[in-house]
Amino acid sequence: MQSDKESKYQKWLKRNKPYRLAVVLAFIVVMLVAPEVNEGDAMSPTIESGQVLVVSKTSYSPKRESPERNKVVILKKTFAQDVSDDNIIARVAGLPGDKVQIKNGKVFINGEEYVTPSGIKGADQNMKLTLKAHEVFLLCDNREELMDSRNELMGPVDMREIKGNVLISVWPFSRFGGID
Fold first, then answer.
1. Which 8-state DSSP code applies to residue 121?
2. pTM summary value
3. Alpha helix positions (H), 16-140
């Protein structure tokens, strides 16, 4: 037989199940993902100004893993302050060890022209570099903006400065869904 104390505890557990579940879900959400509002046109047309994004809190390092090419990432605000008043959102174009060259209006990664999955290509600057073991080369989709690795203040980015990956857009509802 259950004691009166155990019975009360069981009733309490049953009565408060929705609240316990909400607390667990809130904890998971806070620890794994975060909302972010895009300000500016650097990632246009993929991400427009004012879009609300869900960002996974993914950390990278040379010992664990590097981000995937074409992944849209967000930089930590402390790093981004040199270039922007807000977080920087950009696409991973070059991975550690890649040779990046921009010439004649085209971007080349390891000798091959770089085009995003959505067909965005080219850039106006001229540069040539090889990424170190901990660096990635970021490009914004709006190549007229210099809020990426082409900016002298930013350059190639230490992958540990990446705050996370952009997962989905949740606002406006007309743009709800994954980010390519």
1. B
2. 0.79
3. 17-32, 77-80
CA separation for the pair 121, 105 (Å, rounded): 9
Q: At what angle do helices 4-15 and 17-32 cross, to 10 degrees?
A: 60
pLDDT digits (tens, 9 = 90+) for 46-57: 888 888 888 888
H helix or E strand, kind and range, residue 28: helix 17-32
* Displacement of CA 94 from its chain's centroid (Å): 15
Whether 120 and 127 have beta carbons less than 8 Å apart is answered as no
Q: For the chain, first and last CA: distance in Å? A: 59
Name the residue among 93, 83, 85, 77 with its Cα closest to residue 164.
77
In contact, 100 and 128? CB cutoff 8 Å: yes
What H or E segment, with its residue span, contains residue 26? Answer: helix 17-32
pLDDT digits (tens, 9 = 90+) for 77-127: 666 666 666 778 999 999 999 999 999 889 999 999 998 888 888 888 889
What pLDDT is attached to residue 83?
66
